[in-house]
């Protein structure tokens, strides 16, 4: 039955009609699709080739800072295994790792770490606050700068250990001694960077603020302070670095607990494995905090750049 219907559908000649020739629109559509497919293949191949190269470069950037520490650690292992340096002078890395594990297990390490962190945080907070106030006063007032900056530049030339005997006579050997010396170390870079940050505001923006009728307070909060934020973060980062270094120095001289005291105590007992373990902890904590401050500084820089771009677009 189906065959008869098919035969009935045939034309009178008994042959199927030839397909109609494609029109211009159909030919143009077919050609465009072929071109799109041919152009998509190289693009996909190029993207597939670029992605591994980009990942390789990113991996190289991540691993590059660790090449030198890894080389030094390998040299340490080889030197200890070959006996190039006596174990009494430079203990093997395995021995230092065991000592560090023992200090962490019995809780002695955390006692000294907490004492050092408490001192550096209190001293840094005091020094950074005073440095921000002093730098802001000198940055916003030429008269304050003329009175304070010469004496400030003279006093900052005295190192932390130079102040130790004088402060020791004033406050004794207790915790205030350490807080004052750490605060002094943090104050200097914070104050100088704050002064520089407030003075680097473009005069054109200040003129725009005056034209718009900004008060002095509005100029500081809306124009000067946003431009000073990246430099302020740089000063805080440098201030904490100085505070951390001063903490170790102060604890080396006058302390009964803390990482600096742990180093001195190990040296007195000639336990160089304990000295190396404490040095590794000092470096690791300082590096970790510096990375945190570096990210905060980078974020402040990006925020400052976006704000400048917005102001530029608004001005345009």
Topology (SSEs and partners):
Blueprint: H1 2-9, H2 24-63, H3 67-82, H4 93-105, H5 108-140, H6 142-155, H7 160-171, H8 175-199, H9 203-211, H10 216-253, H11 259-268, H12 272-315
Helix pairs in contact: 4-12, 5-6, 5-8, 5-10, 5-11, 7-8, 8-10, 9-10, 10-11, 10-12, 11-12
Summarize the structure.
Helices cover 83% and strands 0% of the residues. It is an all-alpha fold and 316 residues long.
Structure description:
The protein has 316 residues and is mainly α. Helix content is 83%, strand content 0%. It has twelve helices and no strands. α5 packs parallel to α8 (175-199) and α9 (203-211) packs across α10. The longest helix is centred in the last third of the chain and has 44 residues, at 272-315. The protein is flat. The N and C termini lie far apart (81 Å). The relative contact order is 0.08. The model is unreliable at 1-22 and 43-48 (pLDDT under 50).
Primary descriptors:
single chain, mainly alpha, 316 residues, flat, disordered N terminus, 83% helix
Rg = 35 Å
Q: State the distance separating the first and last CA atoms.
A: 81 Å
Helical residue percent band: over 70%
Number of extended strands? 0
- The mean pLDDT is 78
Shape: flat
Low-pLDDT windows of residues: 1-22, 43-48
Class of secondary structure makeup: mainly alpha
Run of helices and strands:
HHHHHHHHHHHH
Q: Could you describe the largest sheet, including whether it forms a barrel?
A: none
How many DSSP helices? Answer: 12
Strand content: under 5%
């Amino acid at each position: 039955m189906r065959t008869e219907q098919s035969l009935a559908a045939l034309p009178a000649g008994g042959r199927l009609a030839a397909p109609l020739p494609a029109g211009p629109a159909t030919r143009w559509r077919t050609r465009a699709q072929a071109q799109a497919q041919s152009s998509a293949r190289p693009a996909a191949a190029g993207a597939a080739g670029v992605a591994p190269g980009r990942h390789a470069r990113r991996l190289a950037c991540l691993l590059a800072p660790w090449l030198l520490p890894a080389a030094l650690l390998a040299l340490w292992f080889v030197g200890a295994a070959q006996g190039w340096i006596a174990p009494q002078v430079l203990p093997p890395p395995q021995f230092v790792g065991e000592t560090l594990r023992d200090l962490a297990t019995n809780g002695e390490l955390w006692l000294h770490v907490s004492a050092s962190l408490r001192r550096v945080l209190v001293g840094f907070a005091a020094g950074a606050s005073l440095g921000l106030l002093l730098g802001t006063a000198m940055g916003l007032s030429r008269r304050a700068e003329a009175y304070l900056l010469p004496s400030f530049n003279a006093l900052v030339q005295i190192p932390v250990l130079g102040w130790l005997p004088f402060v020791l006579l004033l406050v004794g050997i207790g915790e205030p001694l350490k807080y004052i010396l750490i605060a002094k170390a943090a104050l200097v870079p914070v104050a100088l960077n704050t002064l520089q940050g407030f003075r680097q505001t473009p005069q054109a923006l200040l003129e725009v603020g005056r034209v718009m009728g900004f008060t002095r307070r509005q100029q500081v909060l809306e124009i000067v302070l946003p431009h000073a934020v990246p430099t302020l973060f740089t000063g805080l980062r440098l201030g904490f670095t100085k505070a951390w270094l001063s903490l170790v120095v102060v604890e080396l001289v006058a302390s009964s607990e803390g990482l600096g005291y742990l180093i001195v105590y190990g040296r007195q007992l000639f336990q160089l494995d304990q000295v190396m373990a404490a040095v590794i902890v000092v470096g690791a904590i300082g590096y970790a905090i510096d990375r945190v401050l570096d990210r905060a500084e980078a974020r402040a820089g990006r925020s400052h750049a976006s704000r400048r771009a917005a102001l530029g677009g608004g001005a345009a």
